[in-house]
UniProtKB/TrEMBL annotation:
The keyword Signal applies. Residues 1-21 form the signal peptide. Pfam families: HupE_UreJ. This is HupE / UreJ protein. It comes from Bradyrhizobium arachidis. Keywords: Membrane, Signal, Transmembrane, Transmembrane helix.
Length: 205
């Protein structure tokens, strides 16, 4: 059982560290630059996992803290786009792995993160992934339309993930939802393990 689990985590980490070059230009040719910005993050496993982990973390902390991310996360994506030239591929992979490890550990520990720290984590994730998405742009891409699409999908994904997590963790009148808290913590453990493996692979290469 442990051997299968280790193999699954290793395979996931390898997929994530190797998933840098999404074919954004093919999408752009068919749907336009706005839709490219909206769809490009959904083709990258690192975006999908980090955005989901951030939304789940915010959802576990409640609506009062999480609602700030509705504004902070899209702004972070926009702030990261022009920074694409400052991030190399190796630095982006290591930063992704570090954030994944940190968020996973917070989820696994069920830590009560202050609002300021939560916003800082979400902003950092958004800047890193905004830069990674910006690095995929070609010279013919309309950056304004791409940025609008990226901000819209960031707002949508983070809001839906927070709402679904909050509903999932909602305590029932008979107090029968305790297993859901354990499930979220177990998910955090998986995310942390993948982040640790990604960091090891990034440092090894």
């Amino acid at each position: 059982m442990r051997l299968h689990l280790a193999r699954a985590l290793t395979a996931a980490a390898l997929l994530l560290t190797g998933a840098n070059a999404a074919e954004a230009h093919i999408v752009a040719a068919r749907l336009g630059d706005f839709y490219m910005g909206a769809s490009h993050p959904l083709t990258d496993l690192q975006d999908v996992l980090l955005w989901t982990a951030t939304g789940v973390l915010a959802g576990t902390l409640g609506a009062t803290k999480g609602r700030w991310l509705i504004l902070v996360f899209p702004l972070g994506l926009l702030a990261g786009l022009p920074l694409a030239s400052f991030f190399g591929a190796a630095a982006t992979q290591l930063a992704d792995a570090t954030m994944m490890l940190a968020i996973g550990m917070l989820l696994a520990a069920a830590a009560q993160v202050p609002t300021v720290v939560l916003c800082a984590i979400a902003f950092a994730v958004a800047v890193i992934r905004g830069a990674a998405n910006g690095a995929e742009l070609g010279p013919e891409t309309d950056r304004l339309l791409f940025a609008a699409g990226l901000a819209c999908v960031g707002y949508t994904v983070i809001t839906l993930t927070m709402a679904l997590t909050a509903m999932f963790r909602q305590t029932l009148p008979d107090n029968s939802a305790s297993w859901r808290f354990i499930a979220v913590r177990a998910l955090g453990g998986w995310i942390a393990a993948i982040g640790l493996m990604m960091a090891s692979l990034a440092l090894a290469t």
